[in-house]
Amino acid sequence: MRVITLEEVDSTNLYAKNNLHVLEDRTIIHAQRQTSGRGRLTRKWIDFGPGNLFASFVLKPSSDFDEKYSNLTQYLSVVLARVLEKYGLEPKIKWPNDVLINGKKIAGILSETVMQGANFKGLVLGIGVNLNATADEVKLVEDKPVTALNLEIGEVVDSDEFLKELADEFFANYDEFLQKGFEFIKSDYISRASFLDTEVCVQGFNSTQSGIAKGVTDLGELVLERENKQFVLTIGDILC
Questions:
Q1: Closest by alpha carbon to 159, among 57, 47, 30?
Q2: Which one, 15, 46, 68, 139, has least CB within 10 Å?
Q3: Domain residue limits at 103
Q4: Nearest to 84 by CA among 174, 155, 154, 165
Q5: CATH code at 212?
């Protein structure tokens, strides 16, 4: 594992993708400030400035794409939850990979696959975690309630130390996850799920679906029930 720290970058994911050909497997791009961070479904990631975590994991697990790689965002959500639990918190996961503290979002996770023609070159797994912000700053985010780790524990958080904890936890079981996929983390994921047996609406790229969240498949997909019929969603974000 190698960490490259940048003073400022538009997006750690974009930097990693643009330099993927020269970056080694298991390199982490870490920025002190990120000016154009992105979330899932083209959303913008709010930057609360230096002292927060903006990082991307460069992963080149094989020369061919494996469907298990699609679940790496869920693996990272479980990893982040475990780290936050070390701070005495009780994080919850909202499908597919939002991590919440007391119902407020604390992190964003985005995976991007890099292909060259039909050849798989690797993937970039980005994460932003609100580590240090003021109560007034988090109130400025209008689309959903957010929080920061310092507000939850009452003290300033060292972003370098937090990244080390996160990276150590990530790579501790990474190889086993690559072998087994989502089933390897399914019980840990479900034990922290905040959405099961509740009515949810899920936004995809072009439509919104609603129903009762009945479960998660062995592939990490969401099982919804509506009018006594069940259907499976592979892509989307729970909005409510």
A1: 30
A2: 139
A3: 2-191
A4: 165
A5: 2.30.30
